[in-house]
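forwarding from the other thread:

> can someone predict this with GDP-alpha-D-glucose?

sure thing
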Amino acid sequence: MGKTIIISNRLPIQLQIHNGGITAVPSVGGLATGMKSVHSGGDSLWIGWSGLTDEDIPEELAGDIDEALAKHGSSKVKLTIKEVDGFYYGFSNRTIWPLFHYFLEYSEFELESWEIYKNVNQKFADAIVEKANEDDTIWVHDYQLMLVPQMVKEKLPNISIGFFLHIPFPSFEIFRTLPWREEILKGLLGSDLIGFHTYDYERHFLSSVRRILGLEVSFNDIYLENRIIKVDSFPMGIDYKKFSDAAKEHQQRSPENQSELQQRLNKHKKSTPDAKFLLSIDRLDYSKGIAKRLNAFEYFLKKYPQYKEKVRLIILAVPSRSNVPQYQLLKKEIDELVGRINGEFSTVSWTPIWYFYRSMPFENLIDLYTSCDIAWLTPIRDGMNLVAKEFIATRTDKTGVLILSEMAGSANEMNESLLINPNNFEQIADTIKQAINMPIEEQQERNNVLQKRLARYNVEKWANDFMTSLKNQKEKSHSYVSR
Ligand code: GDG
């Protein structure tokens, strides 16, 4: 049995150069958070980009970098500034990300960044081929690396390759607008197993394969030359125990051992015991619907003025892709909205929105998850949304209400939460009111079911299911060839 090689754009740690030395900081984001627990569990190697470009790395530090990465079971793909610009900020985040999240008007179709995307995918594929044996299993992650499976398959035809897409796969009508739609599909079809978060994304993908490539598809098997490729849905779970244990530990802390943030939250809760805290945590991304959420909050305060001074919205927006113009514009829009709403509604004793634009340590995430009364997550499109699951996992006494957009992949598994359409302000305002007034017993009943489900289908189970399915598929495909 060979090793597992995980490949993603970002490694589980990001390297930075400070005062002439290397420091490693954990990567934030859904993929990194989820796969970290898989990676630390077994014999695996993680290949990805370190976060530093070739131009950032002084020659004398090159060896230290490899050493720092090796400590985390990782190996780097070297990228220049031009490659990061064209591949990551360009094709991945100005073409694929908006298109796959149905923001067609934000999608740019530029030949130059497509060429760089191809070249960088080839670099990742070469790095795999250099490290892999034919009995290894390759697990390629996400939209930045959709050509890698085919590129590896060409060199190592017998190796087992799985691909998982962490974002939605759009409907055929959206996907067909991509000038390089055939190349992307063929790239993915180098895999033996292709996984999505939901059945809908799987269905959209199969429909594109059928209509664009004209391939034979039977249920969720694609027949390509002498291979069968399986397509399936694997809704990603979280490291449930990590979050629930952290919350339990957090609650046992004496006040003097609590974080500064927690102490301040406690103080505010004490001074306004009947006020409710609403929380949202997202990367600052247009797909997460942060600006709409702020507008909806304003609508709520106007529709139900009795809740002025009785609710507080805490928004944690984590900086993301700040080189891409759409993200800069969005940051400006959110800054202005927060300023305007706070300006309009604040009183001497109450500021309706607390806005943090930064990444927080894990401990502070737990402070926020456990201290708020309502988690309010309203993505316009979201592959899964792990924050919704993490919030529920930290509610040790089973209280708390989750308001979740039905456009998030996680909504499929979280029917006991209050599901909303992020564009329907009327419904959102009424749902916030319902959440504020929900009896404790009802909260506990709903969360009890959710917790049981999330604890059972955790990230480990998700990864095991994927790997088992990949192994079975390889055997099935092999017996098909030898018929
Ligand atoms: C992509 C897809 C899909 C957030 N802020 C901080 C922080 N986080 C952690 C959360 C959570 C993760 O980042 C965010 O995960 P999401 O799933 O909500 O969103 P994306 O980053 O967009 O992830 C998404 C996911 O991939 C997995 O497939 O669900 O749909 O877009 O784990 O806890 N962590 C720390 N500080 C923060 O400030 N430490």
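The pocket of GDP-alpha-D-glucose is lined by residues 28-31, 33-34, 166-167, 236, 281, 283, 316, 318, 359-360, 362, 365, 382-387, 390 (CB under 6 Å). thats all i got for now
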